């Protein structure tokens, strides 16, 4: 049976299995009817430019965006070895983000230029329905980068609820907290940069509705930290690639009475089940799930199997069995 014999409703159902790029490659321009049905499909369109050829990228930007940009709800852009300078080329091909009037989800990967990042953030203010903004694997190598401006731009987006900040800056390893209050942001992932314990209070001061937070804590010992309650936080992910004095995580967790889910990923430390149980019983009455991933490095000849057995046995209480999900336990021998 020919596709052209199918009613429009069936064609739309079939088109649901394709992303926007594949639909344009396969069906656009075959005839006027297919073009009309595609425009109906693009009333809620997702465009993912991952691994796209330069020819297809130019064709979509030049031939399709003028008419379909107002229908796009999701857009993913990449600067990597397969698609070099894609984001810069995209910005040069459009006059403004204000033509993407339905855009809700914007993801950008591998940005290396501060000026391009600022241009994007400025353009985001033209997106009235933007709720999700994600930066992945971005590394800014410019001589003059104002992290405060980056943070303030993001926090001033009035509809933004979800944000991934995978932005590293050459010569800097610590987060800069915002100076503008976001009344919409509820989910925040901070990646590629560390957060000091005393910065968390300021983060919540300017993000009062934050419910989910993922971050790398530099250390759970901080003489400048003043504990305050964080009642909005219900889901917390803590990860660290260095020793962060995890045995002292009570300093933070005592302020999260409504936490329902806790994810701990430690690359250089081990916290035993007895200690974790004590922390939970004393500070986290609402906790339902604890996801745990830990790594320890042991010198050769230190009764490795014995130590691993003792550690695993510390998680065998009925309390831990009810809460703990072991994602991974890695033991490395030096």
Please characterize this protein's 3D structure.
This protein is α/β, with parallel strands linked by helices and 334 residues long. It folds into 3 domains: 1-45; 56-195, Leucine-rich repeat, LRR (right-handed beta-alpha superhelix) (Alpha-Beta Horseshoe); 219-333, no CATH class. It has 12 helices and 11 strands. It has an 11-stranded parallel beta sheet with strand order 1-2-3-4-5-6-7-8-9-10-11. The protein is globular, with a radius of gyration of 24 Å. It starts with 7 loop residues before the first helix and ends with a strand. 27% of the residues are buried. It comes from Adineta steineri.
Strands in their spatial order, largest beta sheet: 1-2-3-4-5-6-7-8-9-10-11
What's the N-to-C terminus distance? 65 Å
CA radius of gyration: 24 Å
* Mean of pLDDT: 87
- The percentage of residues in β strands lies in 15-25%
Any guess at the CATH architecture of the largest domain?
A: Alpha-Beta Horseshoe
Biggest sheet descriptor: 11 strands, parallel
Unreliable parts: none
The figure for the number of domains is: 3
Q: Roughly how much helix do the residues carry, as a percent range?
A: 25-40%
Question: Could you tell me the number of beta strands?
Answer: 11
H/E series, N to C?
Answer: HHHEHEHEHEHEEHEEHEHEHHE
Name of the CATH first level of the largest domain: Alpha Beta
Global structural class: alpha/beta
């Amino acid at each position: 049976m020919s596709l052209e014999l199918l009613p429009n409703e069936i064609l739309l159902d079939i088109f649901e299995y394709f992303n926007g790029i594949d639909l344009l490659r396969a069906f656009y321009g075959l005839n006027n009817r297919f073009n009309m049905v595609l425009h109906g499909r693009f009333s809620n369109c997702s465009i993912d430019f991952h691994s796209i050829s330069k020819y297809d990228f130019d064709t979509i930007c030049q031939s399709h965006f003028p008419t379909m940009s107002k229908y796009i709800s999701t857009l993913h852009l990449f600067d990597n070895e397969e698609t070099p300078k894609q984001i810069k080329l995209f910005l040069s091909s459009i006059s403004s983000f204000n033509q993407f009037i339905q855009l809700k989800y914007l993801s950008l990967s591998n940005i290396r230029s501060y000026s391009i990042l600022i241009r994007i953030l400025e353009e985001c203010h033209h997106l009235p329905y933007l709720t999700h903004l994600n930066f992945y694997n971005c590394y800014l190598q410019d001589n003059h980068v104002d992290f405060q401006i980056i943070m303030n731009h993001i926090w001033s987006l009035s509809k933004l609820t979800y944000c991934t900040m995978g932005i590293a800056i050459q010569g800097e390893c610590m987060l800069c907290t915002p100076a503008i209050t976001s009344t919409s942001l509820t989910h925040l992932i901070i990646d590629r940069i560390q957060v000091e314990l005393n910065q968390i209070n300021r983060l919540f001061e300017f993000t009062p509705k934050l419910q989910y937070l993922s971050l790398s804590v530099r250390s759970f010992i901080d003489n400048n930290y003043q504990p305050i309650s964080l009642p909005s936080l219900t889901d917390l992910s803590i990860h660290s690639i260095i020793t962060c004095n995890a045995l002292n995580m009570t300093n933070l967790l005592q302020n999260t009475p409504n936490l329902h889910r806790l994810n701990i990923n430690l690359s250089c430390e081990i916290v035993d089940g007895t200690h974790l149980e004590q922390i939970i019983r004393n500070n986290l009455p609402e906790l339902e799930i604890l996801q745990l991933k830990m790594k320890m490095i042991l010198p050769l000849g230190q009764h490795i199997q014995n130590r691993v057995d003792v550690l695993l046995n510390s998680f065998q209480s009925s309390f831990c069995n009810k809460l703990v999900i072991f994602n991974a336990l890695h033991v490395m021998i030096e």
